[in-house]
Specification:
The complex is a heterodimer of chains A (272) and B (290). Helices cover 75% and strands 0% of the residues of chain A. Chain A has helices at residues 6-19, 21-29, 40-45, 51-59, 62-93, 99-111, 114-127, 134-158, 162-170, 175-186, 188-204, 207-211, 221-226, 236-256, 258-270. In chain A, helix 5 (62-93) packs parallel to helix 8 and helix 11 crosses helix 15 (258-270). Chain A is globular, with a radius of gyration of 23 Å. Chain B is mainly α. Chain B has a domain at 63-239: MetI-like fold (Orthogonal Bundle). Chain B has helices at 3-37, 55-61, 64-96, 102-114, 117-127, 134-138, 150-178, 182-190, 195-224, 227-232, 244-254, 258-289; strands at 40-43, 48-51. In chain B, strands 1-2 form a two-stranded antiparallel sheet. The chains are: A mainly alpha (272), B mainly alpha (290). The interface between A and B is large, with 97 and 102 residues.
Chain lengths: 272, 290
């Protein structure tokens, strides 16, 4: 491919920045006073203010929602990796009967629509008296997080050279020790990638969180933002500020951990 | 079987057990139970719970609202995915020759994709605002009610969906482009191939596999889409944006007909599985003949 000049590079970056304008517009709205919101040219001219952030942080359920989302997403990630890493190793390397059917079932799980299983999960979680708890959301989110982790990590395990494991076994290490001391450290970047993806999916999840919570205090960020209340009119500035807070973890991940995220994103698709 | 092989098989079972148990309880069991649920009339608020056989499915077959939702789902899926592919591919090809600012480019691309879909919904709701929205302003001070006009609501939703998912296609294709050896392009240039011919005869055939995989992911996601409709239109106006997922959701948790909602959920699940199965078969055939 012929490399082009700086002008072409700048054009492409400009086009991509334009694509992201909806987000920048929301960011700009979040720091403009209410009096400027209902006309675009006034919004552009008005001085910035933090009043919406103060309103959201002091007088809405958003702080609690941020804590709930962080807790649910982190615990889901931990659970999915803790269950998924040994499972993926077994699927990739050990003689498990019916392995191909199992792998197919795992893939089918990742394709299953949430709206199909939300009814039965609702009945189950209500029967267990788990509504309005983190545990309910962690368990529900695990239904899509675990298959993804199994699938991605099985692929990463297969990339570890057999010889490395055989050497460990000749040294007398058992299967579990081989997994813990040799394989896991080698696939650590893969675990980070899968973990980031699962964390994001869980952070963004709406349907389960909306269905399995009844009280305002147990809402997650997407639910709190979707149901953000307005008394007489829609508080666009506050909603924009809440949107920015909801976007913080994704932004940090995209800016700081880009390489791992892209690796996880492309791992499933580019491997043969 | 040697002792060693037996040990490995036992270790395999032990390591898989926790994950499989979790999946059985949290995914497989709900997926099977929803079938049973769909054969019942179950309305908890009235204490109604009885077996009615396939009558929900019979009702759906003659239900205009169901056929409308199916049509909306298919139109949304087809148009969104087609646009994402055209744009995503164009972006990937444009990025292929990028020399400076690659990290920034990827960050700009990843941003819309990584945001919660509810944020996307709220963001576009504000952009589409009839009097204060940026879109109407850019169009020269129009007062179009994008989300309230039956003819415009679905296109408006599709635009929001394309905005957040085009980057997924672009990134997959771009990542594949990076693995194409430079020598291939040099050979094409030596052979006198122009830029367009190079894309058509060199890049696109090499992207074929990743495009097919992205197509599968995106199609399944679009068939299952729910969040944007929930935030932006709730299925309205006049059910013009009511997809099967929204219809299922409304039946389950707004009118609280658990059995009937489950039946629609089963249809969505069957549709997704059918598409995945047809796709995997096509892929297998292609690999067998390749």
């Amino acid at each position: 491919m012929k490399r082009r000049g700086a002008l072409g590079d700048a054009l492409v970056l400009t086009a991509l920045a334009l694509w992201a304008v909806p987000f920048f517009w929301q960011a700009l709205t979040s720091i403009k006073p209410d009096t400027a919101l209902l006309a675009v040219e006034r919004l552009l001219a008005a001085p910035p203010t933090l009043v919406h952030y103060r309103a959201v942080l002091e007088r809405s359920v958003m702080p609690a929602a941020l804590a709930n989302s962080l807790g649910v997403a982190a615990l889901t990630t931990l659970l999915a990796v803790a269950l998924g890493a040994p499972g993926a190793y077994a699927l990739a390397r050990l003689p498990v009967p019916g392995k191909h059917v199992l792998l197919l079932a795992v893939v089918a799980c990742t394709a299953f629509p949430q709206v199909t299983i939300v009814g039965p999960l609702f009945v189950l979680l209500r029967a267990l008296d788990l509504r309005d708890t983190w545990l309910a959301l962690v368990l529900a989110d695990t239904s899509f997080a675990l298959p993804l982790v199994l699938w991605l990590l099985a692929g990463f395990v297969r990339e570890v050279p057999m010889a490395v494991e055989e050497a460990a076994q000749i040294d007398g290490a058992g299967r579990l020790a081989t997994l813990g001391r040799v394989v896991l450290p080698l696939i650590a970047p893969g675990i980070a990638s899968a973990g980031l993806l699962v964390f994001l999916m869980s952070w963004n999840e709406l349907l389960f969180a909306y269905t399995f919570t009844a009280s305002e205090a147990s809402r997650t960020v997407p639910v709190a933002l979707a149901l953000f209340p307005g008394v007489y009119e829609v508080p666009w500035g506050d909603i924009a500020a809440a949107s920015m807070l909801a976007s913080l973890p994704p932004i940090l991940i995209v800016a700081g951990l880009q390489r791992w995220l892209v690796r996880g994103l492309t791992a499933g698709a580019l491997r043969d | 079987m040697t002792a060693r092989a037996r040990g490995a098989a036992r270790a395999g079972r032990v390591m898989l057990m926790p994950a499989l148990t979790a999946l059985l309880v949290l995914a497989a069991w709900p997926a099977l139970w929803v079938l049973w649920l769909s054969l019942q009339r179950r309305i908890p608020v009235f204490g109604i719970e009885r077996f009615v056989g396939p009558s929900h499915y019979v009702f759906l077959a003659g239900d205009p609202r169901f056929w409308n939702a199916l049509e909306v789902t298919l139109v949304f899926t087809f148009v969104s995915v087609a646009l994402e592919f055209l744009l995503g591919l164009a972006v990937a090809l444009a990025l292929q020759g990028q020399r400076r600012g690659r990290r920034l480019a990827v960050a700009l691309l990843l941003l819309p994709w990584a945001l919660p879909s509810v944020v996307t919904g709220r963001t576009f709701e504000w952009l589409y605002h009839p009097s204060a929205g940026l879109l109407n302003y850019v169009l020269g001070g129009q007062a179009i009610n994008w989300l309230g006009e039956p003819a415009l609501a679905l296109p408006a939703l599709i635009v929001a969906d394309v905005w957040r998912t085009m980057p997924f296609v672009a990134l997959l294709c771009y990542a594949r482009c990076l693995t194409i050896p430079v020598e291939i392009y040099e050979a094409a240039r030596v052979d006198g191939a122009g830029a367009l011919a190079t894309v058509r005869d060199v890049t696109l055939p090499l992207l074929r596999r990743v495009l097919l995989i992205a197509l599968l992911f995106r199609t399944l996601d679009a068939l299952r889409a729910f969040d944007l409709m929930f935030v932006l239109t709730g299925g309205g106006p006049a059910n013009t944006t009511e997809t099967l997922t929204v219809y299922a959701y409304r039946s389950l948790f707004q009118t609280l007909q658990l059995g009937f909602g489950a039946a629609i959920g089963v249809v969505v699940g069957a549709l997704v599985m059918l598409v995945a199965w047809a796709y995997l078969r096509a892929m297998a055939n292609e690999e067998a003949t390749a």
